[in-house]
Amino acid sequence: MFKSDLFAGQRVLVTGGGTGLGFAMADQLAALGAELHLCGRRLPVLDEAAARLRAAHGGMVATHAVDIRDAAAVDAMVESIWQAHGPLDGLVNNAAGNFISRTEDLSPNGFHAISDIVFRGTFYTTQAVGKRWIRDGLPGAVLSIVVTWVWTGSPFVVPSAMSKAGVDAMTKSLAVEWGRHGIRCNAIAPGVIPTEGAGARLRPTDARQEEMSGQNPTGRLGRPQDIGNLAAFLLARENSWINGQTIALDGGDWLANGAYFKQYLDWGDAEWQAARERILARNAADRAARTVGAPDADAGQAPPAPQA
Ligand code: COA
Question: Where is the stretch described as Disordered (predicted)?
Answer without folding.
Answer: 286-308
